[in-house]
Design goal:
Length: about 375
């Protein structure tokens, strides 16, 4: 029995020595590592081994591996200017004596640039409105959420109208998406809230990023408030921006910003004339794509990079958003137009008219009463007035 134990002891001691001092660690330590599109990072694999024979090496599974520098006890994998094709699983394999260790890391490449657009570009107080917020050129659309915030809290009373996830219409190596969320908003109360904004949040393993797009709120004058001007009172909010349905430049593109259309206004007989123009090169054109009511009801004419629209005042209308678009490119310019406030003028005119009619009625009644009282007040024998 003792001889048997003496024979097995060296065997177990050999196994213990082979297992001692062998470990493999990877930095970063997370099993899933998120890397921004176009970014760079290093994955370091270290082997702790007391045996004389040791090695460590990064390997890839059906993916481009990247630049690797390896030594006896460490291996560094460098990923530079990451593209979506760099995403995948990386495996670090280390050997210590006759033992083999393995660690895996999933590299997740994502795109989440600060490219948010909203339409309309501004809101007005006191009425129900619909709003669309779009995040452009993103990956992992399922990991993206869009919300409306008032300060640091979600806006109450918002009704979701749907979500769209579409691939950006651009040819390239990487497939990018635009994600649009639409809501119906409750009436915003005056004074206008100054901190309303759309928030886009990307949540990935070990990562959470957010971008914000402020949304101006215009305060519409009521019938109790005096108008700012004496003739046409217009509240304008203009912004040249990408349409929620048009792509923006890809992340990391350092080229100059594309030219954008602008909307100008000038007085016209009986109303206003709007001119959309874009100071771009040849081959571009602008078109009116939205107006209050039916766009076909307006007089319009176009000439390449300029387009005109005639607004005729009919009572207190039209009121709302006018929008034109640049083709090619899809950039838009938006303008909110509020015509002359006629509610106060109408009520004043009605009140003056009623007062005049009341005075005329009083004069007529007084005259009739005076005529009836004439026989009683006339002395006997006086001639009857004709």
């Amino acid at each position: 029995m003792e001889q048997g134990l003496a024979f097995l002891l060296p065997f177990f001691m050999g196994l213990l020595q082979q297992g001692c001092g062998g470990s493999l660690e990877v930095e970063p330590r997370q099993p899933v590592v998120a890397l921004a599109l176009g970014g760079s990072m290093q994955l370091t694999c270290r082997l702790t081994c007391t045996a004389r024979a040791s090695s460590v090496q990064w390997r890839g599974l059906d993916t481009s591996l990247g630049a690797v520098q390896s030594g006896p006890n460490s291996s560094v994998l460098s990923v530079r200017s990451a593209s979506l094709s760099d995403a995948g699983t990386r495996v670090c394999v280390g050997t210590c004596g006759n033992r083999t260790f393995q660690q895996t890391v999933q590299l997740l490449v994502f795109a989440f640039p600060n490219q948010l657009t909203v339409f309309p570009v501004a809101l007005v107080t006191g009425r129900h409105q619909e709003l669309a917020c779009t995040a452009h050129n993103v990956t992992n659309p399922k990991a993206l959420s869009l919300s409306l915030l008032l300060g640091d809290q979600e806006l109450e009373g918002v009704q979701p109208l749907g979500r769209e996830e579409e691939e950006e219409p651009e040819e390239g190596e990487d497939s990018l998406f635009r994600v649009t969320e639409r809501w119906r908003l409750p009436p915003l109360q005056a004074p206008a809230p100054p901190t309303l904004h759309c928030q886009a949040t990307m949540r990935l393993p070990g990562l959470e990023q957010s971008h914000h797009q402020p949304i101006p709120v215009l305060h519409i004058l009521t019938s109790q408030e005096p108008p700012i001007t004496n003739s046409l009172e217009a509240t304008l909010e203009q912004d040249s921006t990408r349409s929620p349905w048009s792509p923006g430049p890809k992340p990391g593109n350092s080229s100059t910003r594309p030219c954008r259309p602008e909307i100008h206004r000038s007085p016209a007989p009986g109303g206003l004339e709007l001119r959309c123009e874009a100071a771009c090169g040849p081959g571009t054109a602008v078109h009116w794509i939205q107006a209050p009511g039916d766009l076909a009801a307006y007089t319009r004419w176009e000439a390449g990079a300029q387009a005109w629209l005639r607004v005729l005042w009919a009572g207190c209308h039209p009121e709302g958003w006018f929008q034109c678009r640049l083709d090619p490119g899809g950039q838009t310019a938006s303008l909110y137009l509020l015509p002359e406030i006629c509610s106060s003028h109408t009520s004043e005119a009605l009140w003056v008219g009623c007062l005049v009619l009341g005075l005329l009625l009083l004069v007529f009644l007084a005259y009739r009463l005076w005529k009836r009282c004439q026989p009683a007040l006339r002395p006997p024998g006086s001639p009857v007035p004709l």
